[in-house]
From TrEMBL:
Residues 10-198 form the Thymidylate kinase-like domain. It catalyses: dTMP + ATP = dTDP + ADP. GO terms for molecular function: ATP binding; dTMP kinase activity. CDD domains: TMPK. The gene is tmk. The keyword ATP-binding applies. It comes from Spongiibacter pelagi. GO terms for biological process: dTDP biosynthetic process; dTTP biosynthetic process; dUDP biosynthetic process. Belongs to the thymidylate kinase family. Keywords: ATP-binding, Kinase, Nucleotide biosynthesis, Nucleotide-binding, Transferase. Pfam families: Thymidylate_kin. This is Thymidylate kinase. Its EC number is 2.7.4.9. Signal peptide: none annotated. GO terms for cellular component: cytosol.
Amino acid sequence: MTKRGVFLTVEGGEGVGKSTNLAFLTERLKAAGIPFISTREPGGTELAEQIRSLLLTPREEAMSELTELLLVFAARAQHLEACIKPAIEQGQWVVCDRFTDATYAYQGGGRGLSQSTIAQLESLVQGELRPDYTILLDAPVAVGMSRARERGELDRFEREQQSFFEKVRGAYLHMAAEHAKRYRVIDASVELEAVQQQLGGEIDSIIEAWLA
Ligand SMILES: Nc1ncnc2c1ncn2[C@@H]1O[C@H](COP(=O)(O)OP(=O)(O)OP(=O)(O)O)[C@@H](O)[C@H]1O
Ligand SMILES: Cc1cn([C@H]2C[C@H](O)[C@@H](COP(=O)(O)O)O2)c(=O)[nH]c1=O
């Protein structure tokens, strides 16, 4: 029987370095000879990427909070069935830039939607499936936003107020405390080399546990 792959998610606020460090993590997996796919949410399949574009593109018509929540889960349903579940079952690791904890942080913490509404959709779309490990890149909101601004034009979420992102960060830190066995919290406010030194230790121990 094929050994199930690990489902590893990378979370954090805007501009904290998720994409940069996801590439670092997958380099470590490659070096260890571990089969993996690297993907992101919202997105990860052609259809889910189209939903991503609906979610991220700024427009005049305001998007209702419920519409936003349902779009996020619609993209996730597609991503899970077409990409994540088959990969894990085939023994591949799935390294995913954001997953449902982002929904609890942004639509729950940021927009104020109830945990129980999100939990109902989580059960409907995912069944029992949850990430095995979650790396939270944590930095003060101002640090992440200044990195995001330097990158160029801001998307629909990045145009939110600082208070929105403070709530998002608070929700992530709360989840990290609540799910301490699954979470690895990394201080992402320091220079990249120091971030990757912390990350290297964490990924090596996760690999070791899987190979044992
Ligand atoms: N520790 C760091 N110190 C300084 N700059 C960094 C650090 N980590 C990432 N950066 C830079 O910050 C910018 C944002 O990084 P990146 O795109 O990886 O963040 P992200 O979390 O994926 O952003 P988003 O949430 O918008 O997708 C990039 O220009 C990247 O080079
Ligand atoms: C999965 C997910 C994402 N979001 C938001 C968070 C970000 O602002 C964007 C994705 O852009 P990034 O460049 O990949 O960071 O989408 C959300 O609000 N809810 C979610 O579940």
